[in-house]
Structures are given as C-alpha cells and as structure tokens.
Amino acid sequence: MAIITLFSADYCGEDEVINELTNRTKFRHTPSRQIISEAAMLAGMEEAKVERALNLKTSVFEKFTHEKQYALAHIKLVLSKMLLVAAGRDLILTGYSSQLIPREITHFFRIGLIADMQYRIASALEQGIGSSKEAEKGIKKLDEERAQWLARYCHIKKAFNSADYDLIIPMNKESVQDAADLIISYLNKDIFQASSASRQAVEDFNLQAMVEVALAKKGHDVTVAAINSKVNIIINKNVSRLNRLKAELQSIVEQVDGVTELEIGLSKEFHQADVYRKHDFEMPSKVLLVDDEQDFVKTLSERLTLRDMGTAVVHDGSSAINLIEQDQPDVMVLDLKMPGVDGFEVLKRVKESTPHVEVIILTGHGNEDDKKQCMDMGAFAYLRKPVNITKLSEVIKEANAKATKPSQAKKFTKLMDKASN
Description:
Strand content: 15-25%
Radius of gyration: 25 Å
CATH superfamily of the largest domain: P-loop containing nucleotide triphosphate hydrolases
Largest sheet: 5 strands, parallel
CATH architecture of the largest domain: 3-Layer(aba) Sandwich
Low-confidence stretches: 407-421
CATH class of the largest domain: Alpha Beta
Mean pLDDT: 91
Shape: globular
Strand order of the largest sheet: 2-3-1-4-5
Order of helices and strands: EHEHHHHEHEHHEHHEEHEEHEHEHEHEHH
Helix content: 40-55%
Number of strands: 13
C-alpha cells in the first residue's frame, strides 16, 4: 500500500502540485468528490447530501434525521475499506475526507501545503477573486472554517501543526516543481512500511466505521471508537430508559463482524438538557412550519414533536425560502397571510425550485378561491385553522410518504442488508 494524503490551505497551489505528482509518478489522485460519490452509492443517499456532511453547517433537522452522522459513517467506511485493500494501489487522497483517517494509522505520507497571506492573496487575484481586500477577507474566513472543522471532526486544535504531518511545504518559498521534487524524494524511504500497531489501527478504523453505519442505520446517534477490536460507545445525551438503550445498542453491535468486546458508557455531558432521540425512519423528520403567529407555531411544533415528528420553525416567507435552499425539508406547513413574502409567493417559489417538497397550506384567512389557487399551484393539501392535530398529523404523514417515495429508510436497509450478506 502506498498512500499520500495531501491537505492544503486555500490558494496554495494544491491542484498544480497534484498534477505534477501524477504526471511524474505512478500515483493517481482520488479526490474527495470520488470518496463522496462512493459513500453516497453505498448509503443510498444523494451525493449532495453526503457532500454537505463535510460542511461545518448542520441542518436544523439533523437531531431528528441524523443524516450527517449517517453520511460521515459511510465516508469513513469507504476510506477504511480503501486502506484495507489498497495493496498495489498508489493513491493521493485530498480534501476534508482525507483528514478523517485517524492519526494512529502511520504507514502513509501526510503532506500539508501552506503559504503566507501575500502569496495566497496573489493566487486568489490570479483566479479573479475580487480585490486584495476581498481576497484577504475570504481567505481568513476559509481558514477559520478549516480550523473549526478540524477541531470538531478530527479533534485537532491547530491547523497545519507540524506534529500532524510528515511534511509541510511553504509554497511561498517553493515552486510547484520543487515541491513535487521534495515529495518524490521521500517516496523511496520507509514511510509506507506498516508496523503491527498501524495495521491494527486500520482494522480498528474499519470496525469503527462498520459499527457507526450499523447504529446509524437503526437511527442511533452515539460516539463510537474501536481499539484492538474492542468497541467503545459513548452516549452523549440524556436518556429516560438507559438500560433499554444499552441493550438495543449491544444487540446491534454484536452482529457486526470483528467485534471482540463492547463497552457502553456515558459522556460528561450526559445530564445536559438535550434528550437522546432515536430516528424513526417511518415518521416525518423534516417538517418545516412557516407562520408569523409565533405562539401558535411554537405550540404546533411541540405537539408534533410529541408525536415523534421532526420540525423546524420560521416566522416569515423569506426565512422559509432560505431554509429550503439550505436544509431541504420534505414537508412544509405554510400560512398564507404573512408580512413581506406571503404564502402564495413561497408556494410558487418552492414548487419552481424544489418541487419534491410537499406543501400543506394551513391558514385562518383563506377562502375557496385561495384554496383553488393553491391547489392549482401544486399544494398537497389546504387546511383551515383551527385544525385538529390528529388530522394534521395524518396529512403530514401522507405528504411525507409522497415526498420521500421511494422511502430512503427502505433504500438504506436494502443496501446495507445486501452489503452485509
């Protein structure tokens, strides 16, 4: 196995260095988007959703859907399988996905590309990124996001710390060709020789990923680690029936090949206010409520949550449109009469940009003409306030079934069952 991970700050010549390496060696580049594509296929998810899992931003629906966790588990599974079967393949891995490989795996070459601000601003300007001031502001924002991402997902406190890399190259001091020369000069050394501890770390990484996938498949949100084939699970949120949850987690993990021992514990934050919530694939989990009557919509959200539905709330049309673009709900419950962008306009834009989102109109001011207009525009249903919560719940379930058909949960289950056989 010969694998290089190359992680670069923005505007530091990453693409040029990779091209130089692939032109002069037998190494081939496997970009993050390819890892994402393979993970999406394995998980039965859209590539865009898996790609969003590598972003800092978390969907307002994540606590109900656990989609980010599910996607990240599959990215790790693809990476770990790649490490397990990479014999004879000389690969260059790049992007955020490559940083998910544990530091305990030492038998590949970790490279970081950096440069001073002046060099990076000049590179940004060459690519047509506005003025020097705009470029510097954008670079600082990207650096801050990178640092936050590494801290959150890799527990790395400082980006491009020399202790985390085998080689860090300052591109403001080295040409692209010189950087490639330096990297190539290391390839004949013993950096790819695997110790028994490093090989075990690869197996543990794969086991951790398989356990994470198995648990996420059943809707669970916990922290998983694997050391010497022993799996440690940490429950991060308050649980009303702890022993029952532990028994369920144990029954799932014991079915994963390679687990020799299991320990389930509680995090220091176990007694926090946030409550452990297992995702129910059969229930609507991405319902957006849009209404300017704040007390009403808050109460409605609470009542739907008690019925195991995942909801998010906004109080105006503009916020609804922005949230749809970023978080992609499956169902929207929409008021018509709102200040600014009203419900008619929201419905129109939603059906133009994201027609798969099913919209239920819930209004206290409409008439038959409004109803006809909304249904002609593609609304799923038209209901009047006050509405019976049981009736509304049933309509939401029907809308969700249409929006998510074919059921993603069933796709996940079929694909994972097929993969495990």
